[in-house]
Amino acid sequence: MKHLKLFGFFTLILMMMSSSVYAAPVNNQSEQAFDNKIVKRIKVDNIYNHVYHLSEVIGPRGAGTEGEQKTVDYLVDQFESFGYEEVNIQEFTFTRSGEEITAYNVEAVKAPMTNHDTGQQIIVGSHHDSVPWGKGANDDASGTGALLELARVFANTPTDTTIKFVAFGAEEYGLWGSRKYAEAMSQEEADSTVAMFQMDMVGSADAGDLVMFTANGEKNTVTDLGAAAGSRVSELVPYSELGRSDHVPFHNLGIPAALFIHTPLEPWYHTEEDTIEHISKEKLKDVADIVGAGVFQVARKDTPALERSAVAPVPVDYYYEEPEL
Q1: Which of 124, 118, 192 is nearest to 158 (CA)?
Q2: Strand-pair partners of 213
Q3: DSSP E strands: which ranges in the chain?
């Protein structure tokens, strides 16, 4: 496991000796002081509007289709409207059934403050494609909508850590976008990446509860942060084991990575019925709050001074839950 700068030496020893992670003290004022810089600024209507546009205005967004190209244009426009000066499109190709397909990843880079730069980076991801026959409101316009809103909120938030917001293409055909993105990372980039948060299918009213999945079923930095953030802004989130999403290529590079998803899945998974009518604003806000608070705990510029303040994190346990899809 890679350890972040927010965990000092004694904190690290404590983590090794227990299964505890860190949340704000049980004090509403302290909890709000710790997370409000992010969660109070997350507007669920913004997320919902992104989901609506991606699923209902653009519609099916299969890799290599006109719908994907419209999606890429929308993502670039949105990132640039938030003030991101570095917005990158990564084009890649893959072969399916003998026709070569061109697809795209879209990345917006949040640079750290020049005088507060740890040299570390965090990746926050979703996949922007859908199955070719469906609108994909939950899978994964929901994750992409949350990604865009977090990018907006963090755009003007002082951080000492680089944050890369990445919408991956061609997930539905075998994680091609995240695989190509991970393959393109240098060893130095991989070594400096301390956390990868993947949001996939985070808005269905008809799915189950939120779970954090790792590729090997073991806790890591991301699940530690997610559990701690959940206990502060929502409720404790369990972890479990599952591949099948864009966290896997990063896990394979040795990067702490986890998938945030509701399980069991909704009945209309991968069907034409995955539409905006089944999207829950409450679930969208809940996941955005948890991921946003988890990222902020790592990336905020006042680490480690905040650890010694009245809102310093305190231990909290979280548990493994058998996967139920």
Answers
A1: 118
A2: 240, 259
A3: 20-23, 87-96, 99-110, 121-127, 162-168, 193-199, 209-214, 239-241, 257-263, 314-317
DSSP one-letter string for 145-173: HHHHHHHHHHTTS-BSSEEEEEEES-GGG
Residue range 174-221, pLDDT digits in tens? 999 999 999 999 999 999 999 999 999 999 999 999 999 999 999 999
Output Rg (C-alpha) for the chain, integer angstroms: 18
253 contacts 186 by C-beta, under 8 angstroms:
no
The rounded distance, in Å, linking the Cα atoms of 85 and 236 is 36
Alpha carbons within 13 A on the beta-carbon side of 4: 28
pLDDT at 15: 40
Lowest mean pLDDT: which of 113-117, 241-245, 295-299?
Answer: 113-117
Tell the burial category of 10 from Cβ atoms under 10 Å away from its Cβ (0-12, 13-18, 19+): exposed
Amino acid 1: pLDDT: 47
Could you identify the residue written with the tokens 């669920």? 44
- Contact status, residue 296 vs residue 37, Cβ threshold 8 Å: yes
Find all residues with CB under 8 Å of 149, minimum gap 6, and list them: 42, 43, 46, 47, 50, 288
User: Please, is 324 exposed, middle or buried when counting C-beta atoms within 10 Å of its C-beta (0-12, 13-18, 19+)?
Assistant: exposed
Q: What is the pTM of this model?
A: 0.91
Q: Closest Cα partner for 205 from 151, 294, 268?
A: 268
φ, ψ of residue 198 to 5 degrees: the values are: -115, 125
> How many residues appear in the chain?
325
